[in-house]
Amino acid sequence: MTRKSPAGSAPRTGRPGALWAVPGLVYFAVFAALPMALVAYLSLTEWGGLGAPRFVGLDNWARLFDDPLMGKAVWLSLLLTAASWAVQTPIALLLGVWAAGRQRTRAVLSAIFFLPLLLSSAAVAIIWRALLDPNFGPAAWLGPALGLGSLDLLGGSGSAFWVIVFVSAWQFIPLHMLLYQGGARQIPESLYQAARIDGAGRLSMFWHITLPQLRHTITTSSVLMVVGALTYFDTVLILTGGGPGTDTSIVPFLMYRVGFKSWELGYASAIAFTLVLAATVVALLMVRFTGFGSMRSTREGM
Amino acid sequence: MTTPRVSAAAVAALALLGTTACGGGGGAGSDEMHVWMYQDTLVVVQEGAVERFNADSDAEAVIDEVPGDSYVERLRTAMGSSKKPDVFFNWGGGSIEPYVEQGMLEPLDDMLAENPEFAGSFIPSVLESGKIDGVQYGIPLRGTQPVILFYNEAVFEEAGAEPPETWDDILDLVDTFNEEGVTPFALAGADPWTEQMWLQYLVDRIGGPEVFERIVGGDSEGWRDPAVLEAAEMVAELVDRGAFGDAYASVSYTEGGASTLLSEGRAAMHLMGSWEYSTHLDQAEDFAKEDLGYTAFPPIDGGEGDPANVVGNPTNFFSVTSDSPHLDSALEFLTYTSQEEYVADMVANGEVPTTTGAEELLADSPSPDFATFQYEMVRDAPHFQLSWDQALPPDVATPMVTEIESLFNGQSTPEQFVDALAAL
Amino acid sequence: MTTVRRVRPVREKPNVLGGLGAFLWLLVVAVPLYTLLIATVQRSENYTAEGPLALPSEPTLRNYVAAIDNGLLVFVGNTALVTLAVAVLVMVLSATTAFAVVRSRSRWTQNVFRVFLLGLAIPSQAVIIPVYLIIVNLGLYDSLTAIVLPTAAFALPVCVLILVGTMRDISEELYEAMALDGAGVARTFTQLVLPMSRSGLSTVGVYAALQAWNGFLFPLILTQSADKRVITMGLFEFQGEYRVDVPGLLTAVVLSTVPLFVVYLLARRSLVNGLMGVGGK
Q1: CATH code for B33-143+315-356?
Q2: Could you tell me which chain B residue has the CA closest to the CA of C190?
Q3: ipTM surpassing 0.90, yes or no?
C-alpha cells in the first residue's frame, strides 16, 4: 500500500508516511549535517572569519600532520578519555549498585550524591577553580595545613591534568551512578535468592550475578563517558585555559584556540574535522556493539 | 504529559522562538550607536563622554562593556557578522590590521583635516601610532599605559630594602624577600601577556628596539637574535631563584589575583601597566594612596637599549566601522575624546592623557606624583614599544604568548623557547 | 519491585564496606558543596582569613543581593527561554521523526534513522566554526535563537534514538484498535503514540533541557551582548568582573543553580527517571 504512495499517509492502518520524518530530518540537516559538511570544506580553506574563505587545497592537512601540538592534543584527549573511564566506571558502578538497595539511608545519600548534576559544567569548573586557587582559595589554607607549602594544583603540568579528570568525575559520576542504580534494580531478585541458597557470599554474588547482569549498562555508560570526554571543553577552558603551557590542551580546546584566538579558522576546521571523524567512528562502534539501532524492543535487553 | 499539554507547550515554545528572534534582531540594528569598551575600572571616563554626547546630539550612543578575557574574540566574531559595533576600543597595530585589510574601518584622515583643532590636541607621536600604512584609523581614547615596576612600600620598609636601580638589585631583592617569606614579584601566570612584559623589557634593554622591529616586520628569524636568548635565560634564572614564588602558574590578572597579592603585602613588587594604579584605587584605595610605590624598569649592564625606553600601550584607540549606519554620529563622537571634561575625567581616574597640555592638569590627579612620573617617563622615552601580542597578528601572537607561558613555567628551556618562536 | 523491598533488608547483613565507600564519596561531594554554601554568606574580606571550613563569624546575605543587582536574573530568564524552546523543539521533532521511523513502511525512513545514528557522538565543538558561519549568514548572530537552533539540532540524535526505543514498545494490538476506531495517522499519533511514550518524552525533555542549560560554546561564540547572556556565560564573565571577590562569584554560581534545584525538588522522580532513561533505553 505504501509502495504506491511512499510519501503519503495510509489512514486505514494509521501508519505514518515518510513525510513525518521530514521536519526532523530537514532541521537536523541544516543545523547539524550541513555544518559537518562545511567543516570538511573549510578545512581546505584559509579563513580569518572576515570576508570569504580562500581555497588552499590540502595545506591545512599537511600542516596538521606535522603539528606537534596536534599530536600532543590527540594524546591528551585519548589519555583523558581513558583516565576518565577508569576513574568513573568503578566508582559509579559500586555506588550505583549500593544505592540500588531500598534502605532509607541509601535513598537519602543518593539524593545528596545527585546534587553535582544540577550544576552546569561552567559552574562546576568555577567552583573548583575557586577552591583550588593557590592564593585565595581553601587550597591556600590546606597546603600549609598539610605541610605541603603552596598547593598550586592547577599550575602544575601533571596535576592540572588530573584536576580535570577529578573535576569531571565529580560532575559526571552521579549520572553514571543513576544508570547503574537503574540497571541494578532490574536484576531479578530470584537470582540472588538462588545464590544465597547455594551459600554464596556478597562478593561472589556481586562478581557472578551483578556484574554480568549489568553488562549492557556498562556498555551504555562507557559509551556515554567516551562521547562525554570529547566535550570536556568548558571544564578545560575555565579551569586551566589549556595550560600550564599546553599541558591540558585537548583536541577541542586546541581547535578553539587556533580558531578563535589565532583566527586560523581553516586550520581549526581541519582539527575539528578529525573530531567529526573520531565521533563518527565512536557512533558506528556504539551502534554495532550496543544494538542501539536494532529493531528489537530495548526493554528486552535490560 | 497529556497530549493537549504537549501541544500547548509546543505552541508556547514556537511563540517564544518568534519573540526571541525578534528580540535578537532588534538589538543592534536599532537606532542605538554601539560603542564597545574593554571592561575595566576606567570605563567611567567613556561613560561620561557618552552621556555628554547623548545630551548634545540626536543619536543615542550606548557603551557595550565587553569582558577583557574575551574582548578580542568577541570583537572579531561580531565584526564578521551584521552586528558590528559602530565605534570600538582597540590597541592599534596588529589588533586592527585584519579589519583594515578587509576595508572594514573608516579612514579618519579627512575628519582630522576638517577638524585641525581636534587633530592638534593630541601629542603627534601618539596620534601617529593610530595609523596603519600611513592611514589614520584610530583616535587615542585613553591615557598612556607604560609598564611600570610597582612595589609595596610597607613591605620594603619592613625588609629594610630599597627599590631596584640595577639588575643586580633585582636579584638581591629576590633573595631578600624570599628570606622574609614574601613573594618577590607578583605574577599572573595564567595570563601570559603579563609575563610578556618581562621579556619585552629585557629584550629592549639588552638589544634595543631593533630586535623586535625585525620580528614585527615579518622575519621570524629575528627571534634568534642573541638578545632574545639572553632575555629568556634571565627569565629562567628569575624563576629558578624563586622570584615569582611557587604558585603563580594559575594566577589570573583579570580576576585580580596578582594585584591583590601586592596590595595585601604578600608580594613585594609587580611589573604591570600603569592601569594597575587605577585598579588599586578602585579595589584597595588605602593601599593605593599610602603604600603603592613605583619605579622604572632598571637598566641592564652592557645592554644596547636605552634605559629610558618604555614598553606597554602608547594608548588605546577608538576606530569606526565604515558601514556603520551611524557613521556621522560616530565621527562626531570621536571628537569628545579631546574635550576638557573627558581629559579631566581621565586625570581624576589616575590616567595620564595623551593630549597636549595635559601636564598642567596632572595636579588634579589623585596622585600628582605618580601622574607626573608617568608623564615624564613617556615624554622622555626615545622608544615606546607596543605590547608584542597587540603588535603582531593574532596567528603569531597567540602561539607566542603560549610559548612565553611555557618558558615561565619552566616547561621549556630558553633554547627551546627561541627555537619554538623562530618556527612560528 | 515490591518483592525486593520485602526480602532484601531482612535477610542481608549490613554492607559495611559499601557503607564506608558511600561515606567517603559523601565527603567528596558534600565538603566542596558545604564550602561553597558557607562562602556565599561570608564577607569577602573575611573569606581567606577564616578558612574554608569554619562557619562565618559575620554571616551576611549581601552577596546574594549583589549578584541579583549584577543582572543574574536576566541571565536566568534568558536561560529559561532557551531551555524551554530547545526542550519543546526537540520533543516535537524527535517524536514525529521517531514515529515515522517506527511505523512507516517506507524504506526511506530507515535510512533517515541511520543518518541520525551517525550523528550520535558528534560533539558541538566540532562544528562551531560552520555553525558560526551559518548563524551569521542567517543574520541571527547575538540572538537567543542563535543558541536554540544548533543546541536543539545536536540533541536530536540521542532523543530520536530514545523515542524510537519507547515507541517500539507500543503493541501492535493498540494500533489495530485505533485503526478499527477509524483513527487517522494524526489521531493515532496524538491519542495513542504520545500518551504511550510519556516516559520517553520526559527523558527526551530532560536530556534536551540539560543540554541547553549546560550549553557553553554556542553562547560563547554566537552571542556577545550582556542582555543575551545565558547563565553559563554570565558566570564565565563574572569570573573576571568579581576579581578576587570569591564569595560574590560563588554566590552567583549558587543562585544560578536555584531554578534547576527547584525542578529537582518538585519533580525529583521524573528528573531521576528521565536521566536513568538516557542510558537505559
Answers
A1: 3.40.190.10
A2: B3
A3: no
